[in-house]
Design brief:
485 residues, alpha+beta, UbiD C-terminal domain-like, five-stranded mixed beta sheet, 14 helices, 27% helix, UbiD family decarboxylase, carboxy-lyase activity, UbiD, UbiD_Rift_dom, UbiD-like_C
Amino acid sequence: MGSLEDVNDLRGWLELAGEMGEVTTITGAHWDREIGAASEVNYKRASPPALLFDDIVGYRSGLRVLTASMANARRLGMTLRLGTDLDDRGLVEALRTRPGEWVEAAGKFPMNVVDSGPVVEHVVAGGEVDLLAFPVPKWHEGDGGRYVGTGCAVFTTDPVSGVVNAGAYRMQVQNGGRAVSVNMEAGKHGAGHVREWFAREGRAPVTASLGHDPLLLVVAGTEVPAGVSELEYAGAVLGRPVDVLLGEVTGLPVPAFGEIAVEGWLYPDRRELEGPFGEWTGYYSGGSEPVLTMEVERVYHRSDPVLLGAPPGKPPHDYSYMRSVMKSAMIQDALVGCGLRGVEGVWAHEVGGGRQLLAVSIRQGYAGHARQAGYLASQLPSAAYMNKFVIVVDADVDPRSLNDVMWAVCTRTDPAEDIETMRQTWGSRVDPLRAAGLPPFNTRAVIDACRPWSRLADFPKVAEASRELTDHVIRRWPDALGGTR
């Protein structure tokens, strides 16, 4: 079997994942909804495999689409270079303190500019551009079009500092394949870069990778701190710089070992109707709205490229597991880093898309500790976007178990005393509760589901077997109780 050190691109990733028995190939699916529906069914399975679609209807063999790349612990652990045989608990343990360490080390791994790479095996320019030459899926039945960018990494740059940002923004094919809309949330770093370029130059340069080592999707899809380049953050994870080419038109980076990339400019008045699209909240995000659209000036691609798909939808979806794991680790690091004592664990629940429902476990040390933990967690930069509920529980409650968390809410929360709300916080355009035309605010609740501080000494004991007794009976009857001999 190959090793993690051998993985340098999506093809190396696929080879190793295949050797691990983690990839299933599906042939003969149609780009129109069948790829999306098959992927959706797969996400609901226990420990779903990655799906590689080939012989797609209307396209020649070899033009492929990959989904569910990181939908279980083994493949996410592999992608993060933490190991090839991790389970959920092992992955969480392996990630402790890592996000903070990667942020600190990022500056040591500036992107490595090279002269050539596999991604420029084929270069298509100007009037020859046709993104529909690739099997771009229509992912959901109600989508407004075909989305080439779901597992993408969109690169922008700060016009003053030159810091490169990578974000995962949905990208709909426009104008028969010659253009692509880039739907950026207003509060994201990439959108800020674009506004600054518009103010300075009247246009904004953009490149986007559409198939790559899934690690780039991880860093593009999570909140890396402002001022830290996602490419450098990825380099810290890898332990070596990421190789990039500079685009012929904009000079922005393109991953040298990518599968497909596009390049062009955004203009303030160049917009096309985009959407609706099945989003990570589990709902279609409204109707069609004018969205910034790039006339694609260059397409770069390898021979027989693989499009990396990561369509959202009702959880669990393609990247909900990845986001839950990464956000949990980043939020826990941030809570500890800001000086909060007694943090035992954090979990950003998949049912909330890894954003809307956070559980924080603490070992209470003083009056007000639980509320402090809840308020801090609700507004940390790594947690604030689209957060709806923060539930703080005691150290005896597993924050990863929604059953245990809600048991704590039912037995330790007084609704009149222990639920507090904040209004006009950072929401999203994809929130199904947002009325059309209104600013994307949301309201969030902090729920104190800890034992009351004043009753710690006399609060009723939990009616549950001790860990020692549980381990004892599992050792005695491993076959019947699901243990190991």
